[in-house]
Specification:
Length: about 160
Amino acid sequence: MGKLDIDVEEIKKLVDLVDKHHLEELTVEHADVAITVKGKSQRQTTPVTLQGSVIPIAQESAQDYVELETDEAEVVGQGSEITGNIVDIVAPLVGVFYRSPAPDEPPFVEIGDTIDIGSRVGLLEAMKVFNEVPSEVAGEVVDIPAENGKLVREGDVLLRIRVEE
């Protein structure tokens, strides 16, 4: 096996991502290297698989690496930020955003729709798994900046909701 160039900080970020979103497992492949991180309920150690080899990484909580950053936006829930009376529903993870359950079906929400807490506003496909995107607030949909079928990053704004004060 040739020289392996793995940035430990990138592995820590993967562990943080798994812990933050309570994922059971996350596998990232690049060239001939595959890294699999399993959620807390699935592991004692985090195995990293390289061409069939397993390299155990000592289990450390993602909280050991979390740096709290705050800005002027108040965090409402895991996937929402509020500024004034407009709430941004943001992507909780990297994936392809879909506005409807299937290409031939209508979107979950349109601009002008009134939604409740828990309303499904879209789907995120990540690693061939579809994840529902629920609203954590009630209000009127005023903007949908995310494009249907396009890749979004964690934290990208999917929808903007005007909440009643």
